[in-house]
Amino acid sequence: MTSLTSVRLKVLAREAGLVVTGVTTAASFSDIAEMVLERIREGHMTGLEWFTEDRARFSADPRNLHPTARSIISVGVPYWQPDLQPPQDGEPHGRISRYAWGRDYHTTLRARMERLHACLEAELGRRIEARFLVDTARIVDRAAAVRAGVGWYGKNTMVLVPGYGSWVMLGELIVDIELEPDTPLRPRCGRCTSCLDACPTGALVEPYTLHVPRCISFLTIELRGPIPRELRPLMGNWVFGCDLCQEVCPYTGAARPVVDPDFRPERIEHCFPALTWLLRMTEEEFREVYRGRAVLRAKRSGLARNAAVALGNVGRPDDLAVLEEVLTRHDVPLVRGHAAWAMARIDAAAADPALRRALVSESDPYVRGEIRQALETPPPARDQQRPVAAAQPIQLRARRTPAAAR
Ligand code: SF4
Ligand code: SF4
Known about the structure:
This protein is of the alpha+beta class. Helix content is about 40%, strand content about 10%.
């Protein structure tokens, strides 16, 4: 065991910009691995093709990642921003998940972890073998944070950190020094089910279980092909990720606001992009606006596809002209296909002539299929009509006290 106390470690971590810290041993997370394997077999992870059973087994043992590992330092940076609202300019705007508003968190966290590592070597006067993980193996991110007492699992599958809720980026340093482990925290969801009730797609199929193929975060970021038609109406105006099951959480609602420049958006396109701009943006504009940001992961085609769905959900008959332009001119068939769906979703009768014209000139079989299905769209039943608002107002700080969760 090194002479470094838990208090001193937390001071050094704060100086490195890592606001929350906890320590656990480098022992395997075998119980978590079993749970993940079960989820894979039950189909809850379908679509994350890279997340195989072998990967789950491998990443559950920190010593596979770092053979001389003795301890894991779990670290976190809160990112809840207090004062940002979608513009009220009459334009339909999309929503980007808060974690992606600032600079790419992988780069930010890694830089801060490297700073902490350098401080630890200076403090202990020895070289420390370390491996830095941010989202490299999420099974480890969350499991390590929970075992290190940084937070506890909420029913929305997020780690809830006292004082910050789930608005915390997690990462870990796997190190070859023995540090005193922290004590895990008691889970505190109690009888609360707010996150399960708030999920629009039913992706939280039971407490602590996320069915990935229905989650808007998966649909808008990871899924490369067409979004299942039955889920499109449930996605609101999300174009990258979704925060609904976090926003309603009383612990997250009570989060302390944080002003961390690395997590601030620098322009409106980083948090509430205009949907028509997303639909028309060029590859150069996309790369320029989202350079160094997590949004790049969705690619221009994915973001434009998502914008078409969002516009279908929150747009007005006035937006049919833009969607017709996208349907006939966008270079990506995936986007043209979703534009056809969006036109019928806004007003099937008004969209009919434009859809028929497009069917004559369109040669891509996928887009033709979408247009044909759009032409068959019946008018929405009274109880399934689209919201009138151009953009869903963001729900800020559900000010229920944490005690309400018990
Ligand atoms: Fe549901 Fe959105 Fe949470 Fe996914 S991120 S579980 S879609 S509320
Ligand atoms: Fe979900 Fe409520 Fe637990 Fe938050 S406290 S994770 S909203 S069950």
